[in-house]
Design a protein that fits this description.
Length: about 170
């Protein structure tokens, strides 16, 4: 059975609020499998495991951290193992590259056209993927005025998640 797309693909990511993470993780993995099937690409065991590792928590992970986890699962210790899997996942819209952190985060809306904005907690490294339609529209407007055509944009905002902001506020 084909998993349904989220009702609002640009809804706030659950990373910063209490939610059933196993359900969240399972839904994202099922959608990723569906996207791979629709595109006629193969989610090999190492690619699938790399995605599962990224889906375990709402945070970005570096390639070497993913590699360590893959190696512990018997997928090899050589960096190309992780980099090839991550490159495939990024190319197919299943994972996003978070440039500020030189890391990767699972896409929470695979197969759905969206312009994500990443909210990155500088304290705990949690990453929320949130809809960026308004940001993208403003960026398009500025670019069009300059005669510039945007092919790809990656918006990343650094700050504090609600839990860490509460700690800084003395809560």
């Amino acid at each position: 059975m084909k998993p349904a797309a989220p009702a609002d693909p640009h809804a706030t990511d659950p990373a910063f609020r209490t939610h059933d993470h196993s359900h969240c993780q399972g839904d994202a993995l099922a959608r990723a499998e569906d996207v791979a099937e629709q595109r006629g690409v193969r989610l090999t065991p190492v690619r699938r495991r790399a995605l599962e590792i990224l889906l375990e928590a709402h945070r970005a992970m570096g390639a070497y951290e993913v590699l360590e986890r893959l190696a512990a699962d018997g997928f090899g210790h050589q960096p190309p193992v992780a980099y090839r899997a991550l490159d495939f996942l990024v190319e197919n819209g299943l994972v996003h590259r978070i440039r500020r952190l030189n890391a990767f985060a699972a896409c929470m809306h695979p197969g759905v056209a969206h312009a994500p904005v990443f909210l990155i907690c500088r304290s705990c490294d949690a990453v929320a993927e949130t809809g960026g339609d308004a940001v993208r529209a403003a960026l398009e407007q500025v670019a069009t005025a300059q005669g510039f055509v945007i092919e790809r944009a990656n918006v990343e905002a650094l700050g504090l998640c609600p839990a860490c902001a509460g700690k800084d506020a003395g809560c």
